[in-house]
Every structure is written in structure tokens, then in C-alpha cells.
Amino acid sequence: MRKIVIAGNWKMNKTVADSVKLAAEVVAAAKDVKNVVVAIAPTYLALAKVAEVVKGSNVKLAAQDVHWENQGAYTGKVSADMLKEIGVDFVIIGHSEQRTYFGETDETVNKKVRKVQSLGLTPIICIGETLAERKDGRLEAVLTTQVNGAYAGLSRDEALRTVIAYEPVWAIGTGVTASDDEAQEAHAFVRGLLAKLYGDSVAQSISIQYGGSMKPENAAGLLAQKDIDGGLIGGAALKADSFLGIVTPGETIHK
Ligand code: PEP
User: Which atom number of ligand 1 is nearest to the Cα of residue 231?
Assistant: First the structure.
């Protein structure tokens, strides 16, 4: 059975004090959640403090990025060891904002995935097409390149410890959501790519989140789709009640 994984990506929002406050609200609101893996991803700066808040709760800690080297002269970067030390469980890798603004490529995504994997952390691998790519009929080609790139060199067992976030770039932060059918179609295609790489049983075990303006109003419809196993949430994760409004419908869904 696949897990429903719902993660809040707080991006570059919230001071440390505000992050601690929101984390405490999420912990309290999610205390009875049983069937959904809930995670929150504050800024690097707030991670250590938020780690103290989520400790012992059923809310997992996620980082928004990582560097692939262990240590050294990489100004501004944070290593997977450092994230592991403070209790991080998930690492978001290859977010479209990293790809668009900070030069992330399929190759750097792969290096990061392999590094966090080697330390037992779970990567949330973000993929997705731009509007121009979709309009040009290149959706499948883009997803194929991104999936093959991210998973290059990963064993079957390592692949089993990954999560994918399918995030159409045109839906991120825009208020425009993929329809249930559009999202399901892309998710089924991605699962098919995983099946080609690792066989059907591995493909059926990997959770594939949807991301892109997911909110309480559209969560139930998206989460009910056969191949949608959770969400990566931006804007709606910045308030505990809207975030939990996405988690709650996930509680009743079994894949
Ligand atoms: C995201 O940043 O991964 C995201 C999906 O953002 P939003 O929910 O705001 O579209």
C-alpha cells in the first residue's frame, strides 16, 4: 500500500519565531492524523528550532534543498549530514524554483538524491513541465528526461525510498490547478516511467504527490485520483487550518 504524503513547503516565508508558532499549530492540529504522513519544510534558518517542536509528534521535518557534498568551500550551502543531525526526514530536491532561478539541472538533482539516499533521508523529487512545454506537446518528453535523470544509478531498494512530486510549473503559486484528470494522466505516465525503470511492484509502491495551487477546495478531488498519493503544498501550507484542510481528506483515502 502506498502512503499518502502531504508536505508543506514554506519557501522563503516566516521568521524563526513565526515558523516555531506555525509548526506548533500544525503539530496540535495533526495530532490525531493516522493515515497521512505529514511534513513541514521551513527555511534552513528555522529548521533546528522547528525540529524541537515536531520532536515526538507525528509531523515530520523536511528541508527545502541540500548540497551533494559532505562539507567544504560551498558558501551558502548545507549538507545532508547537517540536515540529518537535526532530525530532518525528507529533503525537497529539484523544485521548479531551484531549476528556474538557481541553475538546478537533472544532473544536480541526481547528485542530491543519491547523497540524501546514502544517509537514509527521503528525497521528494520535484518534476513538472512549463506551460510552453505542455502546449508544444512535450509533456511526456520532459517528464521522461526528469525522471530518468533523477533516478540514474539508483538501485531498486533506493528507488523504494523516494517520493516524487509532480508539479506542473504553470500551476505553482498561480492559483491555477491542473484538473483532476490532467493531474491523474500525468501521474499515471510518471508511474509508468518508474515501472519501466524498476518494474511494476516498485512503481506501485512509490508515492507521487501533486503540487500546484493545491488547497482545501480542490484537495479531495485530486487525492481521490488513482495515482495521486498526496501533495506538496506551497501557499496553502502557510496557515495551519488550510494545510490541515488538505491533510484531512487524505485521511480517508487508501491506495
Ligand atoms: C510548491 O511550491 O511546491 C507549490 C506547489 O506551491 P503552491 O501550492 O503555492 O502552488
Answer: 5
Give the integer Cα–Cα distance in Å for 66 and 215: 27
Spell out the per-residue pLDDT of the chain, length 255, in tens: 799 999 999 999 999 999 999 999 999 999 999 999 999 999 999 999 999 999 999 999 999 999 999 999 999 999 999 999 999 999 999 999 999 999 999 999 999 999 999 999 999 999 999 999 999 999 999 999 999 999 999 999 999 999 999 999 999 989 889 999 999 999 999 999 999 999 999 999 999 999 999 999 999 999 999 999 999 999 999 999 999 999 999 998 877
Tell me, yes or no, whether 255 lies in a domain.
no
Q: Has 254 been annotated as catalytic? A: no
Domain membership of residue 67 as a residue range: 4-250
Residue 188 lies in a domain: yes
Interior angle at CA 17, CA 65 and CA 9, nearest 5: 30
Assign residue 92 the CATH number of its domain.
3.20.20.70
22 lines ligand 1 (CB under 6 A): no
67 has catalytic annotation? no
Q: How many structural domains comprise the chain?
A: 1
